[in-house]
Amino acid sequence: MAARSLWAVPRRLQRLLTSSAASDSWGWLHPFSTATQRTAGEDCSSEDPPDELGPSLAERALKLKAVKLEKEVQDLTVRYQRAVADCENIRRRTQRCVEDAKIFGIQSFCKDLVEVADILEKTTEYISEETEPGDKKLTLEKVFRGLSLLEAKLKSVFAKHGLEKIKPIGDKYDPHEHELMCHVPAGVEVQPGTVALVRQDGYKLHGRTIRLAQVEVAVESQKRL
């Protein structure tokens, strides 16, 4: 009996130790797992930004965009104002050039006409000084020479500036170049519908008619029965 009781004591002690170790192990693992879960939960929750930061970031982004757009509007406004000012300056300069062209466009032509006036003046002075009283023949000769020189100079000036005389004798009647004054009977040398006589010469400037020629146009004469 004493031997059996001694043998049973170690077995009971072993069971107690085993149960105590198991309880200690379960008690140690459970708090550890709970703390681990809490820490993981806190870490996960800390990664997400608070809801209060969302609207503030959006407002900041909108404000920055508004400031940028406002600067662009100001820049475009300044550019537009400069462009309008440049266009206005160009318009004024163009208008001034057009006005100057209207006033001084015939400057070269007038300069050449002054030479014609000089010839006419010198001819008049020469005739009045050199001609003897009563010598009509010499006077007419000097007048003729002066007028011939004057006509030649005028033709030169006209040709230089593109001004030409219309010579429509024998040409077909053209209402864009001729002004019909009357009809005359057609003859052997004058065909019907053509210009038979010129009462006043017409002129063209660089091919454009600036004065119509006053003409008489030939037509077929009606035979009397």
From TrEMBL:
DNA damage recorded as keyword: no
Main location: mitochondrion
SUPFAM superfamilies registered for this protein in UniProt: Coiled-coil domain of nucleotide exchange factor GrpE (SSF58014), Head domain of nucleotide exchange factor GrpE (SSF51064)
InterPro entries: GrpE (IPR000740), GrpE_CC (IPR013805), GrpE_head (IPR009012)
Signal peptide segment: none
Keyword rRNA processing: no
Localization: Mitochondrion matrix
Highest taxon above the source species: Eukaryota
Record keywords, A-Z: Chaperone, Coiled coil, Mitochondrion
Coiled-coil features, chain-numbered ranges: 59-93
Family of this protein: Belongs to the GrpE family.
Function: Essential component of the PAM complex, a complex required for the translocation of transit peptide-containing proteins from the inner membrane into the mitochondrial matrix in an ATP-dependent manner.
The protein's name: GrpE protein homolog
Organism: Galeopterus variegatus (Malayan flying lemur)
